[in-house]
């Protein structure tokens, strides 16, 4: 086996999809008996929508969700005002998706799982990893039932309490974002319309909110409770909480489908790689849910790692390419942790800062900008959408290949278009398989050296 992916959350499933389409022999294992049942990570940011378009799941994601509803503020049983959840970001040709799309996490995972199976991938449920041993050739993973599996690489996508992270001795450095206890639950209620995200703030900074989840009959209940209290996650406990903070009666909560409690924390793994073991998603970084960055940063970990594993395992790229995963993603995760914490504390507005369209890798060792005075898109930037000779760029980018804009290519694995859109500015641009500009120049001079360095022949 080439790759063992531990954890069938969004990170593990997205990575499984990317490896499957590259012909990499990968297995996803999950300690639970099925997919995660809750709505927790419900915000799909625009950059992740672009990733999902490439992975072939965006149509299903869009059909399963909706834009975020406006927030309705209540006080003493009366509606006292409304406000948008996000500052508007104008759509334009380079960025066709500019608003977060709300999909319950359980539904996102169902869609990813179906795509993985469609591509021939597999998830083995009820398989708990309890230990690892690695050598120069691969990794042996031990399971709770006493069996072992051998793989060339292992990816820990098994969440904030990652057993794989502990097994390889990687610590996490972080801080408590808020000392108050929080809870999140999926409930069914009577007496609220589904046009708004209903917020019921308390006078002491606590409160609850009920957000309708598109495509379901459920609301997601989020609550911030007084310090020192312990959330009661039973149906009776949820009913008591709703009756205490809203004008609804306890009996208006008709069903509790899932519930969890947490204390918001920001933490970053000290390393994202130990030998042949990689950390991704919550195993590598834990966010406050404010701002909707956690799931999205996690999916993009998978998107970054997938093409690099494929290049090394299938295309003969140098092993050093895998070193750039930690280089690029740990810095990105650190920035996103700061953003999430800023949103939680009210220091940063949701909007342009949180849609993740401005993220890139300008300082990466994989980034080469050879122009002396570049204008427009630069190496390291996300490659915007656009049109060249009637071809949409995101259609040209779709798939596991590199794309060259502005010069002919005669290299296997590189698709070429004769020009870049005017919005890019003058130059020749080589777009990585994950949609970032890896190399840019005034002409194609020097391109061959770069391609050889990253293993494209």
Description:
By secondary structure, the chain is α+β, with helices and mostly antiparallel strands. It has three domains: 3-65 and 103-175 and 266-344, FAD/NAD(P)-binding domain (3-Layer(bba) Sandwich), CATH 3.50.50.60; 182-262, Alpha-Beta Plaits, CATH 3.30.70; 368-453, 3-Layer(aba) Sandwich (Glutaredoxin). Helix content is 25%, strand content 27%. The strands form seven sheets. A seven-stranded mixed beta sheet has the order 6-5-15-16-17-14-18. A six-stranded mixed beta sheet has the order 8-2-1-12-21-20. Strand 28 and strand 29 form a beta hairpin. Helix 1 (10-21) runs parallel beside helix 4 (105-118) and helix 1 packs parallel to helix 7 (294-314). It is globular, with a radius of gyration of 23 Å. The model has no long low-confidence stretch (mean pLDDT 93).
